[in-house]
Amino acid sequence: MGSETGNEKMTKTSPYLIALLVLAANSPAFCEEASLEEMKQRCQQAREIKIAPLREAAIEECVSSRRSSRTHEDCERIHRAFGEGGGTATGGFRSRMFNDLPECVEYFEAQHRQETDRSRR
């Protein structure tokens, strides 16, 4: 036992390590995290499909405004977070656009379920 080399120890522990990793990867918590991230991506993609043409229209309006001397790049920078919501100049709050899409509702409900399950543990 004392004469084992590092490679021999690695060979003996590898099956256990592999089994542990396989069990961890198949655990519900790991799968929920992966699927939750996938749901979030689907929500973002669905929102972007809806927001992109509106953002482009806002950029074009910004550029073509008679009172504005802004370049297209300036207007793109100004509107890059178009649809994301957040605070307004007057201290109000503007909600994110298209959070009511089915992909987003599914994501928010799954996220809420996961948070509820964690708080019960």
How would you characterize this protein structure?
With 121 residues, this protein is mainly alpha-helical. The protein has a domain at 29-86 and 95-120. The chain is 69% helix and 3% strand. It has helices at residues 6-25, 28-64, 72-78, 102-120; strands at 86-87, 93-94. A two-stranded antiparallel sheet has the order 1-2. Strand 1 (86-87) and strand 2 (93-94) form a beta hairpin. Helix 2 crosses helix 3 (72-78) and helix 2 (28-64) crosses helix 4.
Helix/strand layout:
Elements: H1 6-25, H2 28-64, H3 72-78, E1 86-87, E2 93-94, H4 102-120
Antiparallel strand pairs: 1-2
Helix pairs in contact: 2-3, 2-4
Gyration radius over CA: 25 Å
Uncertain runs: none
What amount of the residues lies in strands?
Answer: under 5%
Main β-sheet, spatial strand arrangement? 1-2
Order of helices and strands: HHHEEH
How many H/I helical runs?
Answer: 4
Helix content: 55-70%
Q: Which sheet architecture does the biggest sheet show?
A: 2 strands, antiparallel
Total strands: the figure is 2
Class computed from helices, strands and strand pairing = mainly alpha
> What is the CA–CA distance across the termini?
42 Å
* Mean pLDDT across every amino acid position: 81
- Give the CA-based shape: elongated
